[in-house]
Amino acid sequence: MEIQNKATSLWRNFFNVKMVQMRTFHMTWFAFFSCFFAWFGIAPLMTVVRDELQLTKDQIGWAIIGSVSITIFARLFIGWLCDRIGPRKAYTWLLILGAFPVMGIGLSWNFESFLLFRVLIGGIGAAFVITQYHTTVMFAPNVVGQANATSAGWGNLGGGVTQFVMPLLFSVFVVGFGFSEAVGWRLAMVVVGTIILLIGIAYYFLTQDAPDGNFDELRAAGKMEQKREVTVNFKRALRDPRVWILFVIYGCCFGIELTVNNVAALYFFDYFDLSLVAAGFVAASFGLMNLFARTLGGIFGDNFGALWGLRGRSVWLFICLLFEGIALMIFSQMHVLFLALPSLIVFSLFTQMAEGATYSVVPFVNKKALGAVAGVVGAGGNAGAVLAGFLFKNMIDWSEAFLILGIVVSCASFLAFFVRFSAEQETEQRAAFAAANIDTLRKKAIEANKALEEGIKALGGKPGATPAE
């Protein structure tokens, strides 16, 4: 059954938090921002951790792989869980439980214990699936691409912000309070974990599953499919080849972003002889593009969908991936900072637009198994990061690893042409798209009429009177 009363505009009521759709939108991107910040909070401090725990390059590689590997399974599970219990409860539990390993990593004393906590922290990366799920059920087809892209993009922004905030927080503890470096990075992670815990509690009280209520209420009223049908739809989604094509595609954009978030600070520290803070700021420029880049991917996805239907969304996805691969190959060959930085930014732009383009397609693959599709595709991002991590774990030069990844992404871009939709799906979505646009125009007309009546009343006339009266 289709969720009703979805918002047909993202920007017109952007700050109206009385609307459950907008309140949920802001809570979900902020929760994901916090998760992403915590997920990669240790990355910009790895130079300090490496020296204290005496980690080898191979061990750092395993830590990179571990941080994203468990998220594959967490995302598969969380998608199914969203369909069963709703995104509100799923997000609340993920945030609360995820806060403990974030704080607990401060207890690490050797490589094995550090790796264990790094793996457990990766579980909060499943927050992405809930974010996309929650915005999808809150927004209509004409804006769902940009709503998904913006919530995820601003969430991913945490991966950029953490690159310079964590070194600064570390400096506050070491320089400001006089703690040793060994204690400073541990206390910094405790602060982040505490914030995650508090946001989890707030999420439960400030959001609801769908525009008309929580899933339990909607199921009781017969407005949603029952829980027993969730697993059936999940299995059906797993048999759809388009889901696995998008799995690979997302691995080639979000998987690359995860990898860069993990290695960027070390890459600029070791290859360009920058300080810890300077390397963090340069690495942050990659993640900070999420402020608008992923939104652009979603907006163009919606526009291509308006002009050419669901097929148009797939074509836009191809364009983003192809240019991402080309930009990554160029970045890999830049060995001076004033050339590496702009090429990194261009590469980041297309990477994040490709992510937004992917999730402008996902909501239309299988509406009855939205959580399953979102979860599988999201897991593809982490699977890509795991595979890419092996390149950086091995002893090859990191610039060569970036070149190889660029070639792979460019080749994978052509898979977008195999994400096809039936004539019935195209017709259905064109009708839904048109209905959402009509609803938007109707609301604008109501608002304009209300403003006109208020203007007439202010001039001394009566509501409903003509200007002549």
Automatic annotation (TrEMBL):
Keyword Repressor carried by entry: no
GO biological process, one term: nitrate assimilation
Any Gene Ontology CC annotation: membrane
SUPFAM superfamilies the UniProt entry points to: MFS general substrate transporter (SSF103473)
GO molecular function: nitrate transmembrane transporter activity
Gene3D superfamilies registered for this protein in UniProt: MFS general substrate transporter like domains
Pfam families given in the database record: MFS_1
Compartments where located: Membrane
Key words, A-Z: Membrane, Nitrate assimilation, Transmembrane, Transmembrane helix
Keyword Transmembrane helix attached: yes
UniProt domain Major facilitator superfamily (MFS) profile: residue ranges: 24-424
Chief site of localization: membrane
Transmembrane region(s): 28-48, 60-78, 90-109, 115-133, 154-179, 185-206, 243-268, 274-293, 314-331, 337-357, 369-392, 398-419
Membrane topology recorded in Swiss-Prot or TrEMBL: Multi-pass membrane protein
PANTHER family for this protein: HIGH-AFFINITY NITRATE TRANSPORTER 2.3 (PTHR23515)
Family classification: Belongs to the major facilitator superfamily. Nitrate/nitrite porter (TC 2.A.1.8) family.
Identification of the protein by name: MFS transporter
Native source organism of the sequence: Mameliella alba
